[in-house]
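Sequence only, no structure available. Ideas?
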Amino acid sequence: MSELQLFPLSSVLLPFGRMPLQIFEPRYIDLVRDSMKADKPFGMVWIRRGAEVAQRGRASPELGDFGTYARIVDWDQLANGLLGITIQGQGRFELMETSIAANGLVIGQVEELPVPAPVAVAESQLSLVDVLRSLEVHPHIQRMNLQVDYNDAWQVAYALAQLLPLDESLKYELLCLDGIEELMTELDVLLNQVSGEG
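Reply:
I predicted one. Tokens follow.
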């Protein structure tokens, strides 16, 4: 097990997925500074229930059992004066226990999960590659500067799941899957539902 600074969020970050964030809470400004200075990832964990922003008298948020290592790939000062960062998901971890640091940051004891070896995209899964390529022409997605190996089914599946307008609970379920066949099949079903064919 290892110790990891956590960023609980009501959105799910998937491996190979990219996500823009606005940073305004002092504890997360500390986390971003530490991560950039040491060039090390932090942990993104989905909030099942509860609030992202700390509020006195509110119960701590309930966090998912699995999370994603996040690395900062871009940052900028936003027009509203806040710090904007773009993060990219790396491998997954299992969250064993948490504690709260003096500055309010959530610290997790995590178990790193094995990074799956690349798997070739099967012919039956090529339609998912086409959908991902079609999404990449949108200006919002182009700004994220995605870097996907279209020959690796894992990267295609995770990047597509990150971009689709799915409920965060569904994205979390996809994050928890260990097999590429299961992940691709589930994604295909969800894609048909999104497009109105399911």
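Residues 52-59 have pLDDT under 50 and may be disordered.
Hope that gets you unstuck.
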